[in-house]
Amino acid sequence: MRFERSAPATLAEWEAVWAKTSLPAGMWLDGEWNAALDGSVATLVTPRDGSDLTVVPAGRAEDVDRAVAGARRAFEAGTWSRLPPRERGDVLLRWADLMEEHREELALLIALEMGKPAATAWAVEVRTSIGLVRWYGELADKLMDESPRGRPDSVAIVSREPLGVVAAITPWNFPMTLSCFKVPAALVAGNSVVLKPASQTPLSMLRVAELGSRAGLPDGVFQVVTGSGPVIGDALARHRGVDTLSFTGSPAVGARLLRAAGESNLKPVALELGGKSPNLIFEDVDDLDAAMDTAAWAIAFNSGQMCTAGSRLLVHASLHDEVVAGVTERLAAVRAGDPLDPSTEFGPLATRRHREDVAAEIRRGRESGARLVLGSEEIPGGPGFHLPPAVFTGVSPGDRLAQHEIFGPVLSVLSFHDEDEAIVIANHSDYGLGASVWTGSLRRAHQVSRRIVAGTVWVNCFEEGDASVPFGGRKLSGHGADKSVHGLDKFTALKTTWMAL
Ligand code: NAD
To answer: Which ligand 1 atom sits nearest the alpha carbon of residue 307?
Structure first.
């Protein structure tokens, strides 16, 4: 069953969705809402206007114990882990249908919890998340084990088995999509999953978890624990009952998780981390307008709070002034506003504290001698944690503006004179997540893509992709892959069964 519908078209229509939405108020454990064992709660603040939104349980280590124990019980019971793969896939397909049915509500929850325009959440984040659940649901019975052509006196089977209990820790910038990069893949492989969403943004995935139970996930197979990162995240990383950990977030927390795993049961830790993605515009670009539209979008989308944000714009010197003028003009015209208003293109930053951090980076950049051609570190008045886009020129490759991940709408423009120099600058980063190359030359498209160290290179586009291709990073951007068939690797163990005939 597919539901074709269009998004609410007015602010009043989104407010009507809110009027009939009840906010999740518990952790989703063992198929029901639960308070924290000690009754603690944390208040969520909406970046829409800075008001208190609701409270959710502030879990502690004993809540993690409860979640992991329930996930383990469910795994051992076999009602999910030993189900025929097609039946697991069918549950995921029903789950995707339910998410489609609740698409407005899910988009609203994302808008309220982290400030993304609801229309964008509806059209991009929730659609992508539904697509991921559906894609893994369809894949369920299309995976094959191997039997190498071995010796005549034996048969070898190389099979993939679920690991048991998977922990997933995810950030606030795409609270649903980045969780759905992991959860359906881990589940379709037969694991149980304990998800810790970012402490600022648990609501959308709590609702998704409840829908999963309605779709037929047995109790305990998908648990969502709420609470602070240092408490819940650390407890999961140290838990001896967790078989593997998949993390998306900052390199600093990734490093902590590796240490915690090393100090406990040596669980594998897959890391999707930060980025400082270069966006290269060569002098032979075919469509300069498209390149400038995309360069502006690549730093304004999600208010720049993207691991893949095109935060370093590398432009051939002959185009530098034209591109700076064009991109600046586009960014100045971006419509900021209420995340529930469908005409809003640019929402507030996710938290008051994050806005202060981004503003401090703009001040630091200005004081460093780079030229601020758009934006300001001044915090605007009015409701919501807004901060308009900023553009710096005169940035050198080693400057903090070209090295530090700001995770906000701050663009650094650098220039280059030839292909080799462009590649050296592009690779002059601790990160290696995404990169974009704008050129009309087939040779250059291939050769530059090969030489850039990144998990994904886009040619004459940016941020494109779907569930069928892997997403991951190199260097400080992490390792491994989410999405695609490769996204299953970290959630399965290879087993060799060797039989003498
Ligand atoms: P973060 O690392 O602060 O938090 C990520 C998650 O870890 C959250 O759930 C948080 O509660 C938890 N956490 C925080 N402190 C912890 C601790 N001490 N121990 C265990 N868990 C802890 O990151 P963020 O601020 O939520 O997100 C921004 C970062 O995430 C940026 O660096 C961004 O580039 C990165 N990111 C990467 C990708 C990717 O796919 N590569 C996608 C989105 C965001």
So the answer is: 34
**272 annotated active-site:** yes
307: Cβ below 6 Å to ligand 1? yes
256 shares a domain with 356: no
How many whole angstroms separate alpha carbon 294 and alpha carbon 299? 9
Q: Ligand 1, from 56, 199, 248, 356: best to mutate by most atoms within 8 Å of Cβ?
A: 248
Q: What spacing in Å lies between the alpha carbon of 275 and ligand 1's midpoint?
A: 12
**pLDDT, tens digit, 9 for 90 and up, residues 38-75:** 999 999 999 999 999 999 999 999 999 999 999 999 99
Closest among 448, 33, 158 to 281, alpha carbons compared: 448
Tens-digit pLDDT profile for residues 460-497: 999 999 999 999 999 999 999 999 999 999 999 999 99
- The residue whose C-alpha atom lies closest to atom 11 belonging to ligand 1 is 229
Q: Whose CA is nearest to atom 34 of ligand 1?
A: 274
Helix axes 103-114, 127-139, angle to 10 degrees: 120
Q: Which atom of ligand 1 is nearest to the CA of 197?
A: 9
3 part of a folded domain: no
Q: Which residue has the tokens 């989308």?
A: 301
Q: Give the domain range for residue 426.
A: 278-467
238 and 211 within one domain: yes
Looking from the CA of 180 toward its CB, the CA atoms found within 13 Å total: 30
* 227: region left, alpha or beta (phi > 0 left; psi from -120 to 50 alpha): left
Residue among 272, 361, 405, 463 flagged as catalytic: 272
Read off the CATH number of the domain in which 84 is found.
3.40.605.10
